[in-house]
């Protein structure tokens, strides 16, 4: 008998974290372009979130930051760090792999016809700065989930079909270890902004994961949501076990989608947040739906691990107070401070990839304990730059600082095989 559990793998926020405004359609990234960033504070905020979730009794893992600046990528573009144009240099420096929800799509073993957990690394090809993440992510997935009796790690879907991983994927199930239904959310149009998840990529992932047709659903993101800044579905909807929590404007064909969900998974509890209570604008500004919706081991009730921005948005906080006072599955609200990541459009849920598996079959180097987080914090305190100003991205000396910082972390976590 295996002990399947949901484990949240957070991306450790890398030493080159900066605000270069690289993500068109991501309002926080555009608004904060050119600000100074605080990589040390950012990484410590991420670690504090992991500690908070461990304290709730949740299982926690992590992924290492990638090797940045990505000199190999610059070389493939026929340039170097010193001579690259500023937008290309910034893309080479991006710490965007922190948003592990975009690392891969995961189908737990009970959903797949072959009884294995399937992971497909996301190609992230719509945004240049993210398009070169997958090799470094793939290497870590291959290491962490090397046990081929339990896992299959797939290559990314080939271009031209953009795939953004778990940010556009939801799962409903009676409990994590039981067979569920999987909802693949794609975009067709986003008005002025790109739709990042292509329907063909979603279909390819579902096929490769050997999911049965009667337990998958393909849903279109609403154009209105993408145009309002919901560049990923996980900015307007989140699911956990039998609960779907979504904004009224999240999906293109809401009624048809809800009917299909109810047909394929009759136990579902759908909580729709109406526009007249929380506007799309407030939902996106506060990242209400980018909460981690989790089941608490102590009593089986559900909690939302929310960004503090949700607490600071009156319409959102008052809606949530009414919600938990009522008779729904969500009973607890836990605001966490991840402001450095939020300023680039990444909330608590963006920072983690959910994997349902038996922790005993995962490489333990990727699993968090309070002691390991102490060791990681010490490396961050000693090596992560306190501040990165826009000018420093033009200065090649930043390179040594961020490369040495990552090296120290890999050594502390005994993961030096990931060095290059
Ligand atoms: O892809 N921001 C990320 C945020 C990803 C959030 N992930 C989820 N919703 N799952 C993105 O837009 C900003 C980087 C910059 O502008 O430098 C950035 O890439």
Q: Brief overview, please?
A:
The protein is 32% helix and 19% strand. It is α/β, with parallel strands linked by helices and 420 residues long.
Helix-strand blueprint:
Elements lengths: L4 E7 L15 H5 L7 H17 L3 E5 L7 H6 L9 H8 L10 E4 L9 E5 L6 H4 L2 H11 L6 E4 L14 E5 L6 E7 L12 H10 L7 E5 L2 H5 L9 E4 L2 E5 L6 H11 L4 E5 L6 H7 L5 E4 L6 E6 H4 L2 H12 L4 E7 L2 H4 L9 E6 L12 H14 L14 H15 L8
Parallel strand pairs: 1-2, 4-5, 7-8, 10-11, 13-14
Antiparallel strand pairs: 1-15, 3-4, 6-7, 9-10, 12-13
Helix pairs in contact: 2-14, 14-15
The chain binds N~2~-(3-carboxypropanoyl)-L-arginine.
Radius of gyration: 20 Å
Which class do the helix and strand fractions yield?
Answer: alpha/beta
Q: What is the level-2 CATH architecture name?
A: 5-stranded Propeller
- CATH top level is Alpha Beta
- What is the residue-mean pLDDT, rounded to a whole number? 96
Reading the helices and strands in chain order gives EHHEHHEEHHEEEHEHEEHEHEEHHEHEHH
């Amino acid at each position: 008998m295996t002990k399947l559990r949901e484990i949240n793998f957070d991306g450790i926020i890398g030493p080159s974290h900066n605000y270069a405004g690289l993500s068109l359609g991501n309002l926080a990234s555009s608004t904060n372009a050119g600000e100074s960033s605080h990589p040390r504070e950012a990484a410590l905020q991420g670690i504090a979130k992991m500690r908070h979730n461990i304290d709730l009794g949740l299982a926690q893992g992590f992924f290492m930051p990638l090797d940045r600046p990505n000199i190999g990528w610059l070389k493939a573009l026929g340039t170097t760090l010193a001579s690259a144009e500023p937008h290309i240099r910034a893309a080479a420096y991006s710490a965007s792999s922190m948003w592990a929800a975009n690392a891969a799509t995961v189908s737990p073993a009970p959903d797949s016809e072959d009884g294995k957990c399937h992971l497909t690394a996301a190609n992230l090809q719509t945004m240049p700065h993210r398009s070169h993440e997958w090799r470094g992510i793939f290497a870590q997935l291959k290491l962490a989930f090397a046990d081929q009796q339990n896992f299959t790690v797939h290559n990314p879907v080939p271009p031209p079909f953009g795939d953004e991983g778990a940010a556009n994927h939801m799962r409903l199930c009676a409990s994590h270890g039981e067979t569920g239904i999987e909802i693949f959310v794609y975009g067709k149009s986003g008005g002025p902004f790109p739709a990042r998840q292509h329907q063909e990529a979603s279909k390819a992932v579902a096929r490769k994961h050997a999911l049965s047709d009667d337990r998958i659903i393909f849903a279109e993101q609403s154009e209105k949501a993408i145009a309002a800044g919901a560049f990923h579905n996980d900015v307007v909807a989140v699911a956990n076990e039998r609960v779907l929590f979504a904004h009224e404007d999240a999906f293109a064909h809401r009624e048809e989608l809800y009917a299909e969900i109810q047909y394929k998974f009759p136990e579902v509890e759908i909580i729709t947040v109406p526009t007249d209570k929380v506007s799309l604008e407030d939902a996106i500004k506060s990242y209400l739906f980018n909460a981690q919706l989790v089941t608490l081991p102590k009593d089986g009730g559900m909690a939302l691990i929310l960004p503090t921005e949700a607490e600071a948005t009156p319409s959102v906080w008052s809606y949530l107070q009414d919600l938990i006072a009522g008779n729904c599955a969500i009973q607890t609200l836990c605001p966490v401070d991840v402001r450095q990541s939020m300023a680039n459009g990444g909330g608590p849920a963006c920072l983690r990839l959910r994997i349902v598996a038996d922790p005993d079959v995962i490489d333990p180097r990727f699993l968090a304990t309070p002691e390991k987080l102490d060791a990681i914090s010490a490396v961050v305190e000693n090596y992560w730059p306190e501040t990165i100003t826009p000018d420093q991205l033009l200065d090649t000396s930043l390179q040594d600082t961020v490369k040495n910082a990552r090296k120290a972390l890999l050594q502390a976590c005994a993961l030096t095989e990931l060095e290059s």
